[in-house]
Amino acid sequence: MLFPEPGTASGVQWAWLAPALSASAFFAVVLLGRFIPRNRAFLSILAIAAGFGVFWYVLKEFLSSGGGEFSVKWFTVGDITVSWGIVVDELSVVMLGLVTFVALAVQVYSLGYMKGEARFGWYFAVHSLFAAAMLTVVLTDNFLLLYMAWELVGVCSYLLIGFWYERRSAAEAAKKAFITTRIGDVGLLIGIIMLFKATGGHFDYSTIVHVAEEGGIASGTLTVAMLLIFLGAMGKSAQFPLHVWLPDAMEGPAPVSALIHAATMVVAGVYLVARLFPLFLLAPTALLVVAIIGLITALLTASMALVMTDLKRVLAYSTISHLGFMMLALGSGGFTAGMFHLLTHAFAKALLFLGAGSIAHGSGKTDIREMGGLWRRMPVTAVAFGIGVLALGGIPPLSGFFSKDEVLVAVLSGRGPVFFVLTLAAALMSAMYMARLLFLVVLGNLKKENEHAHESPWVMKLPLVALAILALTAGFLAPGWTSDYKGFGAFLFHEEPEAYHINGLVMGLSLALAFGGFALGWALYSRGLLSADRIRERFAWLHRLLVNKYYIDALYQWVINRIVLVLGRFIALFDRVVINDTGVNGTGRSVLLSGIRLRYLETGKVYNYALGMVVGVVVVALIWWLGLPNV
Amino acid sequence: MATLDSYVLMALVVIPFVGGLALAFFPGESRRAIRGFSALVGLVVFALTIYVFLRYDSDLGGYQFIREYGWLDSLGVAFSLGVDGISVPMVLLTGIVLFTGVLISWNIQVRTKDFFVLYLLLVAGVFGVFVSLDLFFFFFFYELAVLPMYILIGVWGSSTDFGTFNRPKEYGAMKLMLFLTAGSVLVWVAILAVYVESGLGTFSLLALEDVTFSDGFQRVFFPLFMVGFGVLAGLWPFHTWSPDGHVAAPTAVSMVHAGVLMKLGAYGIIRVGLDLLPGGAQDWMPLLLGMATVNVVYGAISAMGQTDLKYMIGYSSVSHMGYVLMGFATLNSVGMGGAVLQMFSHGIMTALMFAAVGALYDRAHVRDIGVLEGLTKRMPVVAIFFVLAGLTSIGLPGLSGFVAEVMVFLGVFQDYPVVGILAVVGAGITAVYILRMLAKVFFGTITPRWEHLTDATRVEGFAMGVLLLFLLVVGLYPRPWMDLINSGVAPLLERVVGL
After folding, report:
1. Is residue B497 part of a domain?
2. Is residue B302 a part of any domain in this protein?
3. B496 domain residue, yes or no
4. Nearest C-alpha in A relative to B404
5. Which of A80, A186, A568 sits opposite B334 (nearest CB)?
């Protein structure tokens, strides 16, 4: 039951209100928009703010009386009942808080950023729909509702990437994002159906986990199903080789990038792996694949982030790389590490994207080579952006330091030294590209053309400050401080609580890499001790490879143009020429032709007809004589 | 209410039929009166179909609103009417498409009267098929539904001329007619065979249901139903009439054609074929499944290769009808339930798509995807409806297509996982061609050539809104539909399982 029954004390089931409110805001604005006076954004903001309120209420209730699962029947077909339901546990409460908070911050920010846009109301309506869908993703207790919300989230992303659809590039980027993630979703759906079939007709997580733990699912089936489900997660979380859509998605407005393509939707894949962690543990091969894909993604995209020149693209590649870290952590068995990194990264990266938006808003620049010294003109934005950079770069005591450290610990203990060393390399690059942003964008000398740059309005600064505070402090959630609070690992865990532990070697290496990366960046981009240009010339081939994104996008384009579309045209032509013109028209023509031929038999001469009769009689007699005895 | 209950099915057939005949006496030049009267007929019938939908008791199940009028007693022909959980959604679908189709044809300029006369006769035939419980009348209405199509396409249709590729509308009309007649011949042969073999001397479906035909008979005659009706459902490789026919037809006729007429074929396969010859069905379903899989995948790939907007939707219908046939072929409650819901859902969705394409074509006079660009700026309303219909076709949750397709997938996976994978992949390909088309035609910067286009009129917008409403309601709250469908599918399956 979604409504509290008399006698049940638990109020956590009211969590369903959070998505329902945003969904209502969407329908209200879309259907009744014309009757709502002035700007319609306030409805969306009100809904998500109320959702954030719901989070606090649910958190309070959850801490006092625990969670649970609640569902209502949706429809029945045959003997299968399909329901809509929510599960309230540590994982979904954390995600509920994250999504409502970041969505609220981004929507408030959008008031300033999107001011004066045509389709302002539409923008907020889609944001509401997105919030509703995303909250459903994190709250749902069954696979079918998950898939529904999952697809809806994708559509909102499609609509918002293509918000400025008059731009060809935006329309193409939206399409690319949808189709790429859709490839993953084909796998996801097949995986879900496999589990549905293997468990005798169940969609809900708890039953499936239960059946699997009892050994009710053959291990081969489970492994294949989990790999297919992970394919869906790879699509949404932009993991290699389905990562190509995320950088292009930067065609959307900056707040959209902050919310959807940094803090919430793209982490849905990570969340899904975490949610299904018990199943992945039963399919170790699948878990290994998660780790490997995460590692490849982290390394590959971090290297690309080093050479991109568009600010949002650098951030996009960095996002993919960090999503790789999260997958890697989960794949190494580090449940808490992966989720904690998800949390700290979400704050820091949302902050950076909103900062990038503020910079573009105030200076009109998107290319980092044209920026520099912006702290002189837009101090709040610059400081907030700087905090985000340092947090993601892993400088203590900012949040990213703590979570990255946990990821490294998890990788070392779960997957061994090879994975660990490669992860360190990715972490070093992470520090370097963040240093590049720090020195090229925030610090340095103000360029002449940026003289007129100005600070953004308070509706944009306020979310920046709020996120900056979290990026600064969220790391302190990790250790336990009081006897009541034993750290994030004791709150959010799988199987057994993890105390925050310090591995001296790992932390030393991590610190050395973070500071080393920033020092290298300082030497390259600020002091000019090393010339970035000389390095670029020296390793021209490498630079070309990176700038061209390892030619992966080009390869896909080639496959689409030369294979997929050609196949489509071929089949279309085959249908026209072979099936229709030969098969159908051919049949028609042969009937016509036989008519034309046969009419010559109508000679009107009696002896012709007599001959025909005789031949006929003989044939019938022969058949009679030869064939009949056998019948 | 009791009196209405006993006449409502009769009224569904008689009102459009008499309305159509009455329209013939209107003066040809009074277009306003003609379309106003047609809209009134449409509205009344639409309301009656909603009444039937709400009034049918799915807990009770079985045939309801039964009514029988003797006709040719010596041959055992009676005009007997009744609906069950499968035909009720089809009746509602026909009501919706009839009404919105009249509104979409609001601005027909050429021979307005003749158009609406034929249109109403066509719809009367369709209703007749869905409510008949007598094979003779079933077949009679089946033919009645097809004949007006020929004239409607031949006179009010549009030809395709791509230079290298020409398809005159007369060709489309002729091919459609020949194909459907050929299918009818097979069906009629099989119906007569059933009539004779049963030895009961009746065409009554309810009486024939109780006969158990010999295995050999079932095995020989089921394919005639399967292919004969299958032609109308767009079964591969007998599908080529369908895209050509869709493209040549005027908008409202495309809507009825793809939206309802193709469902007649699918409906015939289960109502007559599966119901009377369950043993034959069991033998032949693997073949149907194979052909339906080709429908889905081949249809989707063909749609991807099209350059004409209407052809793309035509092939997309071939692909989507494949899910219906696939669901039937599973012979389990989930797959068949999904298939029937898909019939309803696809009917509404494709009607919406053709309505939107029609609105676009009426103004641009071009359907070439390569030429159209950035139309949202000038036609935002058409664009919104087109995008939503497209998303339904992709299977976006919250819209009706998702529920139906997922059930078909689940049903197919029970016994045929490989086919199930292909089915899901087919849905993936759908996303590719729909999104490519949307991005090309509606997004991007508008070319000067299209700056003069105007958006949909209020009437068109209202009609499309009605269609969209049903897509949303079924997508979000499919329960009433599923309760109906379950009650209709269960007895059918019992007959198969009871073998």
Report:
1. no
2. yes
3. no
4. A77
5. A80
